[in-house]
């Protein structure tokens, strides 16, 4: 046995030890989460048991127990009964040993159910040592990300394969041991060395040693501070809760997470492999199932309720297919979400993305066709592109798919042709199409003619079970309340829109005048089409389709007037519009308007000036919040959102912030983003800061002046400096020029 064999054993040993270290580091990180979770979970269980009346024991025993004397003794809740124990119960007059045994057996059954189902909600507004410890423990694993999990999986397989090989190759580690080994051991050693060499070479070629080393570093790095962990939790709470559910072993109801699919379909989906090589985000259980559903069934409709991450599930499918060797993908969506799609794909995956929109879309299409990647285009632009040949496109994703429900529309015909030519198709819509069988059938027809032909009106009339069974091969829908066990949650989305031509013209005029406030609301003031207004209509419409209430906030009264007029045209028949609540509305009247809004059965819209409606009013009837433009002070948006996301809210709150690319909105977001996170983290943990929000905000005037000057430079208007009158105030009244006074628009809540 020569040096080469000894070197092989040494290489194998180093790789084996590195793999063991990663597995151990991950196990310790997981155990730290479990240790931090236990006291919080135990307290939540105790709280739940203390709220269950002792009479509930009758349900478990089918009314066989007599509990009157137990209640009279002061043991009125399940928690008190369990604390009392058999001795205390036996001292109650009229309660015998048999009754004690029955009571405790029933109580333990209920207690076990509570242990399994109690939902843990991490209160970011009231952190305390135990929740901070849990968030910090979770932060280690979340920050390590999917790469660490991938490393652990590979390390586990590697140790299982290398361990026995290294044991058999042991004699090869030294000449004396090899000489003393018998013939059989020598033969096994030779074979084990050869297998070890092959396995180590394969691992090194795949870059596994580097992956293992990086994973160990990430898992041992720890958290910089509790503030950093809390800030990250607020930004990525879904990933924290997903990890928590996985570690605690208390995922949401499996049937609900699987959309109540028939067993044969669900089983086929469960066995579908999901490759995460090109994905940069972890999935919740129901999201992974949704991605597997699209892969297993090939042409499907994902109809999850708004806010469950349909985009992430689509990206997971794209990443999997890319790992399998597919090179070309197409995403079709409304122009209003084009920017969102490109940003999400870039942030959540390693896939190349190209925008196939605008004047140069045909050149971009030719580049996409030659080089591959994910093309993102609009319904109208798709009509101008040649349909692919069979097998060229690995996946066609159609967002807001209910937009192509009319088979006579040209956009529907274009999508239908692409769907026919593509290997796989994923339609996405948050609108509950189950209630419109004819329209739903039109969508299904593009995916599976046999299912569409078998889908009749009687399926819908027969009830949801019959309908779901009929459409199960192509349709998956989950609701928030079924799969998000940490409800209520807060989900915030930046809706990036590209200004229309009329928007751009109005914006340029505001920049030329140096009028900061006019720049902020230019996207709503043009006489032509408004990109932001169109997206706002879509959000309100989808919320209405799902029976949800919406609050729309703006800093400006005239923006709210435009919004009210736009919504009144389409929504008042089914969705009443209330407000606007402005500084000029007396406080009592404001509350009456909010009460009327809350009292409506079903969807409704409430309009409010953000500083007037965002303070002092509880709007927890709403679960959708739209902010028409970014605010100068970070605390203004937080206070407004808190009107809906507060105690008493029974549904998760989704916040949509409407932003325009390339102008004042983008500059405001970039300037405030980093400071907002820290301001938020500290302000929410400091009574003084919360009482005086202005103390943690940047200078309004300075920020406005910088943005105006930068926008004038970007648009080539540096030689068109406004006079003092164009700023709206004499220079003597605002020194130097004050862009915030460009127009005397009141945002005073008391005005």
TrEMBL record:
**What UniProt keywords are attached to this protein's entry?**
Hydrolase
Q: Which PROSITE patterns match?
A: HELICASE_ATP_BIND_1, HELICASE_CTER
Spell out the InterPro entries in the cross-references: Helicase_ATP-bd, Helicase_C-like, P-loop_NTPase, SNF2-like_sf, SNF2/RAD54-like_C, SNF2_N
The Basic and acidic residues compositionally biased stretches are 710-723, 741-751
Q: Cite the Helicase ATP-binding domain residue spans from the record.
A: 291-450
According to the record, the residues making up region (Disordered) are 710-751
Q: Where would I find the Helicase C-terminal domain in this sequence?
A: 535-704
* Record-given protein name: Helicase SNF2
| Organism for this UniProt entry | Streptomyces lividans TK24
Q: What is the lineage of its organism?
A: Bacteria, Bacillati, Actinomycetota, Actinomycetes, Kitasatosporales
């Amino acid at each position: 046995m020569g040096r080469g064999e000894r070197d092989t054993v040494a290489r194998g040993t180093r790789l084996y030890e590195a793999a063991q270290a990663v597995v151990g580091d991950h196990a310790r990180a997981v155990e730290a989460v479990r240790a931090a979770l236990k006291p919080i979970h135990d307290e939540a269980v105790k709280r739940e048991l203390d709220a269950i009346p002792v009479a509930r024991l009758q349900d478990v025993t089918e009314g066989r127990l007599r509990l009157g004397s137990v209640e009279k003794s002061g043991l009125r809740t399940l928690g008190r009964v369990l604390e009392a124990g058999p001795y205390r119960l036996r001292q109650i007059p009229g309660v015998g040993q048999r009754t004690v045994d029955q009571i405790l057996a029933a109580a333990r059954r209920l207690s076990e159910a509570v242990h399994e189902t109690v939902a843990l909600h991490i209160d970011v507004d009231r952190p305390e040592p135990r929740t901070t410890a849990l968030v910090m423990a979770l932060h280690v694993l979340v920050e390590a990300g999917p790469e660490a999990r991938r490393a652990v999986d590979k390390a586990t397989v590697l140790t299982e394969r290398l361990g026995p090989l290294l044991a058999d190759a042991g004699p090869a580690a030294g000449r004396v041991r090899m000489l003393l080994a018998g013939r059989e051991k020598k033969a096994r050693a030779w074979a084990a060395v050869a297998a070890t060499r092959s396995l180590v070479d394969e691992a090194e070629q795949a870059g596994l040693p580097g992956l293992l080393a990086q994973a160990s570093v990430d898992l041992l790095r720890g958290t910089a501070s509790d503030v950093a962990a809390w800030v990250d939790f607020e930004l990525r709470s879904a990933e924290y809760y997903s990890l928590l559910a996985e570690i605690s072993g208390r995922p949401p109801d499996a049937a609900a997470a699987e959309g109540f699919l028939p067993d044969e379909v669900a089983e086929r989906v469960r066995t579908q492999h999901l490759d995460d090589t090109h994905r940069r985000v972890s999935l919740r259980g129901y999201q992974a199932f949704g991605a597997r559903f699209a892969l297993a069934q090939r042409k499907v409709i994902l109809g999850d309720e708004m806010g469950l991450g349909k985009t992430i599930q689509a990206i997971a499918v794209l990443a999997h297919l890319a790992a399998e060797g597919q090179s070309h993908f197409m995403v079709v969506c409304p122009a209003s979400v084009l920017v969102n799609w490109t940003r999400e794909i870039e942030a959540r995956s390693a896939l190349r993305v190209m925008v196939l929109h605008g004047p140069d879309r045909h050149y971009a299409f030719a580049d996409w066709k030659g080089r591959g990647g994910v093309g993102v285009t609009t319904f109208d632009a798709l009509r101008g592109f040649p349909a692919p040949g069979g097998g060229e496109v690995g996946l066609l994703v159609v967002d807001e798919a209910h937009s192509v429900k009319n088979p006579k529309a040209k956009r529907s015909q274009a999508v239908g042709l692409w769907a026919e030519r593509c290997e796989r198709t994923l339609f996405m819509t948050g609108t509950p199409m189950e209630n419109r069988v004819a329209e739903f059938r039109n969508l299904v027809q593009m995916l599976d003619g046999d299912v569409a032909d078998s889908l009749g009106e009687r399926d819908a009339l027969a009830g949801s079970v019959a309908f779901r069974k009929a459409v199960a091969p192509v349709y998956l829908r989950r609701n928030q309340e079924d799969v998000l066990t940490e409800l209520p949650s807060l989900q915030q989305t930046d809706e990036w829109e590209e200004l229309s031509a009329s928007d751009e013209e109005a914006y340029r005029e505001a920049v030329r005048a140096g009028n900061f406030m006019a720049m902020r609301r230019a996207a709503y003031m043009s006489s032509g089409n408004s990109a932001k207004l169109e997206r706002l209509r879509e959000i309100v419409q989808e919320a209405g389709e799902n029976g949800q209430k919406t609050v729309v906030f703006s800093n400006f009264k005239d923006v709210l007037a435009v919004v009210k007029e736009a919504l009144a045209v389409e929504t008042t028949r089914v969705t009443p519009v209330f407000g606007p609540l402005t500084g000029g509305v007396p406080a009592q009247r404001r509350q009456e308007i909010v009460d009327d809004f809350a009292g409506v059965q079903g969807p409704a819209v409430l309009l409010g000036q953000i500083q007037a409606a965002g303070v002092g009013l509880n709007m927890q009837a709403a679960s959708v919040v739209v902010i028409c433009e970014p605010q100068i002070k970070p605390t203004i948006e937080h206070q407004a959102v808190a009107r809906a996301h507060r105690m008493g809210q029974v549904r998760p709150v989704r916040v949509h912030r409407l932003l325009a690319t390339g102008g004042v909105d983008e500059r405001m977001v970039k300037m405030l983003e980093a400071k907002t996170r820290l301001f938020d983290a500290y302000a929410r943990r400091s009574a003084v800061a919360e009482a005086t929000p202005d103390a943690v905000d940047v200078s309004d005037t300075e920020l406005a002046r910088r943005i105006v000057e930068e926008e004038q430079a970007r648009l080539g208007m540096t030689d068109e400096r406004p006079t003092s009158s164009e700023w709206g105030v004499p220079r003597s009244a605002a020194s130097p020029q004050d862009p915030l006074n460009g127009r005397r628009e009141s945002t005073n809540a008391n005005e």
